[in-house]
Design brief:
Chain A is an all-beta fold and 114 residues long. Helix content of chain A is 0%, strand content 48%. In chain B, strand 6 and strand 7 form a beta hairpin. Chain B is mainly beta and 113 residues long. Classes of the chains: A mainly beta (114), B mainly beta (113).
């Protein structure tokens, strides 16, 4: 594909439901990042993968958040027992390498928790 | 923790003028500083990267400066056009955090005809 794709684009969940958000990075990109963007704010780092290894998950806000990238390409961000404060846009980005490389962002998944 | 401030939430200028956006940071000095453009409903798009040992970088109508003494970056768009209207995000890379970017909240630029 030409760029990073994410699905679904929009997700509405009832409080307490589990959700799974998918990211398809650019083929061949080693690094993959997840960010959370609240309305009117800049993206906030959640977690980072280098191939299939999750090297940094310090930004995950709670143990309800879990991310994986089992084969070093597609990644899934899972949120268990969603809360209203989880409502945000979740952005995925990939880059050829981690350091001093531009990051290519997907369009994001807008999650609304009712 | 790293704190990044972008000068204002909104900037309105007339077409043809130069837009200047400011990014100030505290605490750690970044190894790299990046600027992104974000349109409504879309993900950020990379524009420019400048390293700590570089004073200035240019790309077409865009210019970025980096002053590590002032802990500040300026982002200029010359001969602005209505199509430049978007939110511009400043992002810091500390160089030791595996590519993690610290973003400011962005400045919404509106260029009116």
């Amino acid at each position: 594909g030409a760029g990073v794709s994410q699905s679904p684009r929009y997700k509405v969940a009832k409080r307490g439901q589990d959700v799974a958000l998918r990211c398809d990075p650019i083929s061949g990109h080693v690094s993959l990042f997840w960010y959370q963007q609240a309305l009117g704010q800049g993206p906030e780092f959640l977690t980072y993968f280098q191939n299939e290894a999750q090297l940094d998950k310090s930004g995950l806000p709670s143990d309800r958040f879990f991310a994986e990238r089992p084969e070093g390409s597609v990644s899934t961000l899972k949120i268990q027992r969603t809360q209203q404060e989880d409502s945000a846009v979740y952005l995925c980005a990939s880059s050829l390498e981690a350091l001093n490389n531009e990051q290519f962002f997907g369009p994001g998944t807008r999650l609304t928790v009712l | 923790s790293q704190k990044i401030e972008q000068n204002s939430e909104a900037l309105n200028i007339q077409e043809g003028k130069t837009a200047t956006l400011t990014c100030n940071y505290t605490n750690y000095s970044p190894a790299y500083l990046q600027w992104y453009r974000q349109d409504p409903g879309r993900g950020p798009v990379f524009l420019l990267l400048i390293r700590e040992n570089e004073k200035e970088k240019r790309k077409e109508r865009l210019k970025v400066t980096f002053d590590t003494t002032l802990k500040q970056s300026l982002f200029h768009i010359t001969a602005s056009q209505p199509a430049d209207s978007a939110t511009y995000l400043c992002a810091l890379d500390r160089g030791s955090t595996l590519g993690r970017l610290y973003f400011g909240r962005g400045t919404q630029l509106t260029v009116w005809p």
